[in-house]
Amino acid sequence: MEMFPPIPLAEWRGTKETLHRFTQVVGKIRLAASVRRNHWWNVAFHLTGRGITTRPMGQVDGNPVFTIDFDFVDHRLVVAMADGRTESFPLLGQSVASFYRQTLETLAGLGVRVELPLPRPYRLADSGDSGRPFAEDFEHATYDPVWANRSWQVLGQVGLVLEEFAARFSGKVSPVHLFWHSLDIAHTRFSGRAVDQPAQTDPVTREAYSRELISFGFWFGDANLGEPAFYSYTAPEPAHLAEDPLTPASARWVELGNSHLAVLRYDAARTEADPRAAVLAFYESAYRAGAARAGWDVGRLACPGGITDPRLSAPPL
């Protein structure tokens, strides 16, 4: 398959907006039924050979162990129990309301009961305390199997590039995982320094940015940037960060509130002679800029070829 196949936001916006809300329904179930991890790592999805998965959850909340998977090959939502039972239903033809209802009914039929304190979207156009609950959203009901499958294929390719990039760092790192609040796949590196957040900072942000970090990822586009793009940012942002050059030449710094986002447009990466190498170079240039400005010990944290022992020339078999 073509490396980084085209996925223009305008062509699948309806499917993306519906699918985004589907993932938020399941993501909030994951939040309710999993052990909390630092920086909210417990809530993210992981890629599979057919779609994305919550990974096993339950037990700590009194439920049996179960997983929920989006299958973007057969286009079904699949609930699997640790005892071998499975149930599924089609993603095609669902509104957010019907998807929400059928997901909870499927779980209940398998003996899983999860209460969602806020059963509405998080930080989407209809989120917030006065936003429209999932159960009342009949508007978002577009699901094109071709674009849903394409989005998973793109995430799979980007995920492998991020895995390759992640292997170069020996410090604290996040997994390569998919966050459902903004539908972006990301990998984050940490320096270990604690960050004193302002008292008025919301709880989600406080935990996400409690340590100094440089994050790298990809998202499909949104109202602010209406096209897919690779990105990186440093938080807290050191002074003069946006003065540093980025690679390749088409990459740029974009103002985002009081900070900056390093951006490489997906379509620009696709036109490079070696798109994979171009994305790796972009992430590396953004990391070097942020790490240098923030005073990280780049040499000590390096992990060439995914190996930390300097005596090893190759990983053990």
Summarize the structure.
By secondary structure, the protein is an alpha+beta fold. The protein has helices at 9-32, 96-109, 145-166, 203-208, 266-270, 275-294, 298-301; strands at 46-47, 51-53, 66-71, 76-81, 86-90, 177-179, 184-194, 211-219, 229-235, 252-256, 259-265. It has a 6-stranded antiparallel β-sheet with strand order 6-7-8-9-11-10. Strands 1-2-3-4-5 form a 5-stranded antiparallel β-sheet, with helices on one face.
List keywords for this structure.
globular, alpha+beta, 317 residues, six-stranded antiparallel sheet, 7 helices
Task: Outline the secondary-structure elements.
Blueprint: H1 9-32, E1 46-47, E2 51-53, E3 66-71, E4 76-81, E5 86-90, H2 96-109, H3 145-166, E6 177-179, E7 184-194, H4 203-208, E8 211-219, E9 229-235, E10 252-256, E11 259-265, H5 266-270, H6 275-294, H7 298-301
Antiparallel strand pairs: 1-2, 2-3, 3-4, 4-5, 6-7, 7-8, 8-9, 9-11, 10-11
Helix pairs in contact: 1-2, 3-6
